[in-house]
């Protein structure tokens, strides 16, 4: 167990590992029910979702297929004029009978998902979204999510997959980063 109290980079724990584990089980239960008669394909968005994704799929009891994507958004904030950069795409050609559940670690401005969902919706039978964390105060585009772990305030968070400069992803809790690290 890491000692966050003696880690000067970490200000506090925002969501502890136990609460995350409990919430992940609840989300998996809901997904189990909603996708019982569907062909569920879980799509993890790299890299931030990797731990949440792993925990979530291990709590599912229904069959699920696994895919990963790496995407980022740039350009202006609107869906129509923004750009989506896809560095890693779902390799299989035919998704027409698949029900995709896109798994994110965090929704911030909302730009990434607002571009990714229409991109996938052209290819798949259905597309829904699941995020561990939602920061509505930071939203720049109108976007809601189908499954959400925790709504959090506008603080810089790391851990449980989330990074700052590729550090802190392996921390077991979602933590608030000390402003002195990035200011
Ligand atoms: C983060 C996060 C989402 C996106 C959310 O990814 O994982 O994909 O940003 O931000 P938005 O709502 O403002 O679009 P990031 O680009 O930091 O990459 P990473 O997951 O590899 O750390």
Structural features, described:
This protein has 183 residues and is of the alpha/beta class. The protein has a single domain (17-155), classed as Rossmann fold, CATH 3.40.50. The chain has helices at 17-34, 50-59, 111-121, 179-182, and strands spanning 10-15, 40-46, 65-74, 83-88, 99-107, 126-134, 147-151, 157-158, 174-177. The strands form two sheets. Strands 4-3-2-5-6-7 form a six-stranded mixed β-sheet. Strands 1-9-8 form a three-stranded antiparallel β-sheet. Helix 1 (17-34) packs across helix 2. The two termini are 28 Å apart. The structure holds 1-O-pyrophosphono-5-O-phosphono-alpha-D-ribofuranose (PRP). 1-O-pyrophosphono-5-O-phosphono-alpha-D-ribofuranose (PRP) is lined by residues 45-48, 72-73, 104-112, 163. Residues 45-48, 72-73, 104-112, 163 line the site of 1-O-pyrophosphono-5-O-phosphono-alpha-D-ribofuranose.
Summarize the structure.
The chain is of the alpha/beta class.
Descriptors:
single chain; 183 residues; alpha/beta; Rossmann fold; 6-stranded mixed β-sheet; 3-stranded antiparallel β-sheet; 4 helices; 23% helix; 32% strand; globular; binds 1-O-pyrophosphono-5-O-phosphono-alpha-D-ribofuranose
Distance between the termini: 28 Å
By CATH reckoning, the class would read Alpha Beta
SSE run: EHEHEEEHEEEEH
Question: Which molecules are bound besides the chains?
Answer: 1-O-pyrophosphono-5-O-phosphono-alpha-D-ribofuranose
Please give the structural blueprint.
Blueprint: E1 10-15, H1 17-34, E2 40-46, H2 50-59, E3 65-74, E4 83-88, E5 99-107, H3 111-121, E6 126-134, E7 147-151, E8 157-158, E9 174-177, H4 179-182
Residues 45-48, 72-73, 104-112, 163 line the site of 1-O-pyrophosphono-5-O-phosphono-alpha-D-ribofuranose.
